[in-house]
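Quick illustration, no need to memorize.
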Amino acid sequence: MNLLPAKKRKVLVIGHKNPDTDSICSAIAYAHLKNTLYDGGYKPARAGELNQETKYVLERFSMETPKLYEDVSAQVEDIDIRSVKGAPADVTIHSALVRMRDEQVSTLPVVSDDGRLLGLVTTNHLAVSSMDATSETLANASTPLANLLHTLNGTLVTGSLEGVTVTGKIVLGSGSPELIETQISPGDVVICGNRFDAQITAIEMNAACMVLCSETPPAKTIVRLAEEHNMVIIQTPLDTFTVACTINQSAPIAWFMYRNLVTLHLDDPVETAKEIMGQVRYVYFPVLDSEGIYRGVISRRNFLNLRRRQLILVDHNERTQCVEGHEEAEILEIIDHHRINSIETTGPVFFRNQPVGCTATIIRQLYQENGVEIPPDIAGILCSAILSDTLMFRSPTCTPLDEAIARELAGLAGVDVEELAGAMFEAGENVEGKTAESLFYQDFKRFTNETVSFAVGQGSYVSPTNRQKAEGILRSYMDEALQRERVDMIFYLLTDIKAQQSKVLWAGEDADKYLRRAFDCQEADGGYILPGVISRKKQFIPPLLAAMQTQEGARFGG
């Protein structure tokens, strides 16, 4: 079986849902490192929409936005697709059958000049069509007269074939001249042997074409008369019986092809493809790409060689934050700086987890450890990621290593740390024209604690005006977000970078109870002020989880 040319397996380097700057930039940089080391095959990806800060960073350093993957479940492109080259619509039935016999295929797609699928033919279909053929089939199919020359292995004796199609019926020029006269109409194609009287009759009756089944050239008189009557003469070494059986195979396959097709696309989920294929009794199904270009065919047995997607996860290791369909994929590596959580793999993986403020810090180390020089644009986005995750070194998650690496990367990228951070934060906190949904999900994560599920969003602000506008937009959205996410509680941190504190909004029956248990705080203007809390990962989540565990222990007398 001929398959599409073997290509290097594509490995997606992807961050978490609702990606932040670290998630996106680390994916881009790590894919670049892997491609440098292993000669391609690694592709940066994202599991959600970019926030404004990340968009600014990618534009500033002229980086292409990674492709969005909302689901990494197996797709049709992960199956071995049989490479059956499409045939032009004007190819003859005879040529199609010969090719299908030689290539041992039962289905032949018909494609346009630009590769778009027009229809398909099958061997059974063409066989039935041949059985149903009549003397007028070639005319009905607007068959070019030149097709006869190729199908009958003939030579042109006289006349022009350019732009000429069959308009009449096929007549077998046998019997007496009187009988032949009654059978021929102007424009017909007449099959003749070497009988001079039959040839003269065909010319006199104004047939459009005469097919001479003889290896002996026609008489000069016949040629001269044919030229006077603008008749085409084709000579073939085939006998009359063979020509009569074969001539209708000169018709173009476009006349016979199936047009209402069931097609699959490269990005169709495998389960959807199986369902479609189970409803229609085709042997092969054409496969198209996202542009509608024909790529090959698959059959049910191709599912036996299904290849799972391969992933490298960056900036997360928690199931609830992972792209949809990851359970069906093969996770090869995890690079992260968060607590070790709930991702499960089918086999051993390379897992690197360090207590630093940003995944980008680890990525920079991996460049150094592998002796790979870091380009200025990659240095720029990694520096940006560290500044974002550490709030320009103010976050308690920031380590001396984060700051040292960020300043080194700034030098390699030719940027000023303070200027870059200010420009990033300004781009990210601008709330003009934003919906509550877009604000809420620009940095959002879900968490579970055995029996309790909750989610936390965060927005960091330098400008008090932008922070107050964001609060006004988000306050009325909290209950809607709670219902949408189907969690027990939901929280949102409005972080004041300069004041080094956060105001938390909440929704959910027990949310304020856990907040009061976890933090020494007082309610103020519809929220709780948390002095010194600017890190969700290190300062907000751990006390909240501890409060939940304390509650569970008290419930059961622990």
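Residues 11-74+309-427 form a domain with the inorganic pyrophosphatase (n-terminal core) fold (CATH 3.90.1640.10).
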